[in-house]
Amino acid sequence: MARGRRRVLIAVTSHLGPLGRRPTGAWLGEISGFWHEMVEAGLEVEYASPRGGDPPIDPVSALLPGESKDAFVRSGERERLMDSMRSVDVEPARYDAIFFAGGHGALWDFPSDPGLVLATEAIWRDGGVVAAVCHGPAALLEPKDAQGRSLLEGRRATCYSNFEETLGGVAGKVPFLLETSMKERGARFEKAMLPFTQHVVIDGRLVTGQNPASARGVGRAVAELLGATPRVKRVERQPSSIERR
What we know:
By secondary structure, the chain is an alpha/beta fold. Helices cover 29% and strands 16% of the residues.
């Protein structure tokens, strides 16, 4: 970036739920997957949430196995997340990028949170990267660009699709369908041919991922846009549904 900042803000929901018969919150694998890519690229991360403090973690996501999640916990990063700053206390000028992790809880508090809206607008207008995965793009519904247009208007983007919500049995339990709301704001919506598979869309400085499987792909794209290079040798991965403008 122009001023040499190499710091990324990870934003997570403060909403606990419920979602049907169980609580919701942030999806741990999306936080840890993105964090893993930041660590590999040598980028510093900090955490924020609407209420600050320890954000609720979706209990299902906490039970699922995952290399990145295990590393996140072992490294002590989980304790740092528990001390997330309040969104209203965020100083946008400190960050090269902002990333919105998903989890159904984001549908309740991301769109209306003034601290996250202001931080997103400031980072975008300052030339930074804005990224989100799964339900994280709920934070992109209200921010405006320098011309006063929706940040999504005319831009390619993705999120947890209406079809995935339906397959998961929660389409009628969420406050709104994110795919529909993004389209209403002018997003050129894209999704993978198969649900629940990795899909990342890069449109300039806007990076979005469709579902939890896309978290690390979003992280790699953000690191590349920030000009960061991995500090460790990567194992070659099979090609995935990642598209670039």
